[in-house]
Amino acid sequence: MRVTSRRKAIAFFVTLSSCVIAAAIALNISWIVINWRELGTLILGVIFFGIVISGLVLNTIFLVREIRRNEQQDSFLHAVTHELKTPLTSIRLYLQTLQSRNVDEQQRAEFYRVMLADSDRLLGTVEQVLHAAELGHRKNKLEEIVDMETLTRECLQEARTRHHLSAEALRMLVEASEGGAKVIGSREELRSAVSNVLENAIEQYTYTGVVRKRAGSRHGTAWPCTVFPCKDGYIGMCCTQIKEVRGAVLLAEDYELADDPVLHNQFERRARADELEPRLVAGYMKYGKSELFHKGQALGCPVAMTSDARDLVNDPHLNEVGFFAEFDHPVIGKFKEIAAPIYFTATPGVMRSAAPLLGQHTAEVLHSLGTGEADLSFLRADGVI
After folding, report:
1. Which residues contact 172 (CB under 8 A, 6 or more apart)?
2. What confidence tens digit (pLDDT) does each residue in 250-296 have?
3. Global pTM value
4. What three-state secondary structure class fits 259?
5. Residue 186's CB: how many other CB atoms inside 10 A?
6. Which fold does the domain 225-306 belong to in CATH?
7. What are residue 210's phi and psi, to 5 degrees?
C-alpha cells in the first residue's frame, strides 16, 4: 500500500508540474508574441518566465527525491526494527519462562546462554547502525593495512552468534597464499561490507535454500560474455544478440555448433555454458589474440584483446596516432612514455624530456631564486642538497 501510494504521489507531482510548466511555456510564448516590438519588456518577460520554469523543474525534482528518500528510510527502519525486535522477543520469552516456571540448572544455564547470544546480536545490530551513520558523515576516513582473513573470521563469528549457527554451518575456506590478503582501507567500512555479504547470503539460504557461489567472470544471463584463453594470452567478448553469438562460434571454427538451435535461446545457452565453453576455447587456442581480434571484428563479434604493457607499447594503432613518445633517459637510455593526451592546434602539448632524476635540477632552480655558487657548495657540504 505504501509503495503504491508513493508511486501515485510521484505521478501526481510530476503530472501537476508538467501541466504548470506547459502553461508557463505557453504564457511565455504569448508574452513574446504580444511584446515582440518592445525589446526591454520582451527580455524581462523571457527572464521572468525562465526563472519560473526553472523553479518548477527544480521543485519537482526535489519533491520526487524526497519521496524516494523517505521510501528508503522507511525500508531501512523496517529492516532495523525487525533485527532489533527478534532478539528482544527471544530474551523476553526466556525471561517470562524463568519467571513463571521452575527449571533445572542445566536448562537455566542454556537459557542464559541463549539470552547472552541474543543480547550480543542486538548489540551488534546497534553498532552496525551507529557505524553506518558515522561513516556516512565522516569526511576524512582513516585508512590502514587490514588483514582480510582476520577481519572475515571476526565477521563470521558475529554472524554465527547473531543467527545461532554452528561453526560447521558457516565456515570459511582459505586458499594458501604467501603473506595473506591485506587491503589498505577503512577497517570499519570493510567490516560493514563483509558483514553485509554474509547477512545477504544467510538470508537468501534461509528463504530459498540456495547457497551463493562465485559466478566467475561470466555474465549472469548473456553467453558468451567472459574472458577466453587463446594461443598467446586472452580475449574478452560479450555477445547478447544471436548474430554476435554466431560470430563468436564461427570465430572458434565450430561450424556444427554455429547451426545448433541452442544458440537462439539466451537462457539455455547460458545454462549450458560449462558444456559449450570448452568448444570455443579449443578453437581460440589455435590463434593469437591479435588474429582473433581482427577475425572477430569481420564476423560481427564484439571481441577485444586483453593487452599487457608490452602489447600496448608495440600496438601499431597507438604508435601511429602518437600515443607514445620516445625519450632519452640518463640511466636506462632510450625508452617510450605516454605522450601528451590532448593536442590543441594553437597550443600543442610538448613533451620535452623524461622525468628528472632526484635532485637533477636542484642547482638550476636555486640559481633562478638567487642562490650563488658559494651557497650551493655549503649546502652540498652540509648534505642539504
Report:
1. 152, 153, 156
2. 999 999 999 999 899 888 888 898 899 999 999 999 999 999 999 99
3. 0.44
4. coil
5. 17
6. formyl-coa transferase, domain 3 (3.30.1540)
7. -95, 130
